[in-house]
């Protein structure tokens, strides 16, 4: 049976970006494939585009994405680059995305290269090595940075964003700044973004957007959806299916969706809006946003079921979103500045939360300045 979530988060993101996004936490490892291959430039020309609305950002969700993506979804072929320093670096970046577990995972032979804390791959969330339309692709990402990120309350670089994925979606530690791994991943993102117009939207970015529920998502119903559509690949305990044995650094054929070897609770894929949209447009593995297999309601509910399961905890989550009014409506952890429960923040409905935040923002902007102290 095809897989329910290509989370290798070795196969909802970190990101997880969460990378997406504000954060990122899911997908399966497969060889990078593309809708269309185009030879890329031999050096990284500037790439491209304005930020897409992050999952859970204030404002109602739009209807399911219209077919407005370019007629040709451009995926440059790194194998067509020359065998020079640039080509080798881009291809190494692609391999780090597709085979994270084998190159910098917790089971690699050299302890100095064990940066990831789980045996997933970046392409568990960023499908097909970050090239699949509405599978959290990298096309257009490069030109989004530097930008302001509400989660940190500061302007961050693309390197900062990657480090967030490493510590959240990959449940590991940061890459050495300026090291070969970071350089290669950034080069690969730049390469994929070549040819996309700078400053313009990139249709096909993100996980897609479907209408939100007017009710809370239902994990109990989601468990039944999971049993019918996901167990064959991801297992009854969400443990996935390893390629080999524990300790061999070969990752997963079908990744774990929860448990010790999955993304942690600070990843973007641990937020309902990102996870549900990702599932609807990409799962079971092999479907697309054009012809989803699950109904919208089933996608919301099964995402809620997966998020209700245990996973690693990221310390100091209370430091996220230092400006409380900028916390996304579907943030599963506080502190919150509104009166809504953690359960509603995790399961929705999100409209009342957004309305309250809008009210608080308006009150804050109209209040007289406090006396200087």
For the structure shown, list the relevant keywords.
mainly alpha, Cytochrome Bc1 Complex, Chain D, domain 2, 2 domains, two-stranded antiparallel ribbon, 29% helix, 5% strand, disordered N terminus, disordered C terminus
Summarize the structure.
This protein is mostly helical and about 375 residues long. The protein has helices spanning about 85-100, 100-105, 125-130, 160-165, 180-195, 220-230, 230-235, 270-280, 295-305, 340-345, 350-365, and strands spanning about 35-40, 75, 145-150, 155, 240, 250-255.
Write structural notes for this entry.
The chain is mainly alpha-helical and 373 residues long. It has two domains: 1-315, Cytochrome Bc1 Complex, Chain D, domain 2 (Orthogonal Bundle), CATH 1.10.760.10; 317-366, no CATH class. The chain is 29% helix and 5% strand. The protein has eleven helices and six strands. The protein has helices spanning 85-98, 100-104, 127-130, 158-167, 180-193, 219-229, 231-234, 272-282, 296-307, 342-347, 351-366, and strands spanning 37-39, 75-77, 147-149, 154-156, 241-242, 252-254. A two-stranded parallel sheet has the order 1-2. Helix 1 crosses helix 5 (180-193) and helix 6 packs across helix 9. The termini are far apart.
Please tally the helical runs, counting DSSP H or I stretches of 4 or more residues.
Answer: 11
Order of helices and strands: EEHHHEEHHHHEEHHHH
Task: Give the full name of the CATH homologous superfamily of the largest domain.
Answer: Cytochrome c-like domain
- Whole-number average pLDDT? 84
* Low-confidence runs: 1-64, 66-70, 369-373
């Amino acid at each position: 049976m095809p897989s329910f979530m290509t989370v290798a988060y070795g196969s909802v993101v970190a990101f997880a970006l969460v990378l997406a996004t504000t954060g990122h936490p899911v997908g399966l490892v497969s060889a990078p494939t593309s809708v269309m291959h185009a030879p890329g430039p031999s050096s990284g020309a500037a790439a491209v585009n304005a930020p897409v609305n992050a999952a859970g950002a204030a404002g109602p969700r739009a209807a399911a994405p219209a077919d407005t993506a370019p007629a040709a979804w451009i995926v440059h072929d790194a194998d067509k680059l020359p065998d020079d320093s640039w080509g080798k670096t881009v291809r190494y970046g692609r391999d780090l995305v597709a085979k994270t577990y084998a190159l910098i995972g917790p089971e690699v032979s050299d302890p100095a290269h064990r940066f990831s804390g789980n045996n997933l791959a970046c392409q568990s969330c960023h499908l097909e090595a970050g090239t699949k339309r509405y599978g959290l692709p990298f096309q257009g990402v490069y030109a989004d940075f530097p930008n302001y990120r509400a989660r940190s309350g500061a302007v961050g670089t693309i390197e900062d964003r990657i480090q967030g994925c490493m510590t959240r979606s990959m449940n590991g530690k940061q890459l050495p700044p300026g090291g070969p791994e970071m350089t290669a991943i950034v080069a690969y993102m730049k390469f994929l973004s070549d040819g996309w117009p700078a400053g313009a939207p990139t249709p096909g970015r993100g996980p897609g957007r479907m209408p939100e529920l007017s009710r809370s998502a239902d994990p109990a119903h989601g468990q039944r959806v999971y049993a019918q559509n996901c167990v064959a690949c991801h297992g009854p305990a969400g443990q996935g299916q390893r390629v080999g044995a524990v300790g061999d650094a070969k990752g997963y054929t079908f990744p774990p969706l929860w448990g010790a070897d999955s993304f942690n609770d600070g990843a973007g894929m641990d937020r309902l809006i990102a996870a549900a949209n990702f599932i609807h447009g990409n799962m079971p593995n092999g479907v697309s946003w054009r012809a989803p297999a699950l109904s919208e309601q089933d996608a919301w509910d099964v995402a809620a079921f997966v998020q209700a399961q245990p996973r690693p905890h990221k310390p100091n989550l209370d430091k996220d979103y230092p400006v409380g009014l900028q916390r996304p409506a579907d943030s599963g952890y506080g502190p919150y500045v509104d009166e809504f429960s953690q359960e509603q923040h995790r399961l929705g409905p999100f409209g009342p939360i957004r309305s309250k935040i809008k009210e608080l923002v308006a009150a804050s902007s109209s209040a007289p300045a406090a006396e200087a102290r």
